[in-house]
Design brief:
four-stranded antiparallel sheet; 4 helices; alpha+beta
Length: about 160
Amino acid sequence: MIVAVMAGCVGCDQATKSIAEVHLSYSETLSILGDTLRLQLTHNPGAFLSLGATLPEAWRQAVFGSGVALVLVALLLYALLSKRLSAVGAFAIALYIAGGASNLADRVARGGYVLDFINLGLGSLRTGIFNFADVFILAGAIVLAVHGRRSVKLEDNP
């Protein structure tokens, strides 16, 4: 299940990035659904919402390259070897790893940056620009948080 989730998510993210690169512009925004959805290409040298984008190049490579790779390998080993991890927990970790791995693949293939192209919002209230890998990372974190809360409640009330 872990490998299937990871393969599907990485494939989806990379496919949408390829489509976005062919059909979208770096200079013009495509507005859809009454401006609720905006599509525009951008290079992100940092993490979520460009966090760390202003770090010196060597630090960015260390943190977003080697550091991320080590964390992803550790999470994968935990998901594959843990005897206490539930199926829901493994699914959540697989989502998280898939998003991180796809963005890491971007950094390797694109000279240190990630391709982002999605922006959501209503009026002046808008998200930052992101991609589907970011959605998978966030979804994995939410599933882990919700599942963790439920597990704690179940353990507290036998």
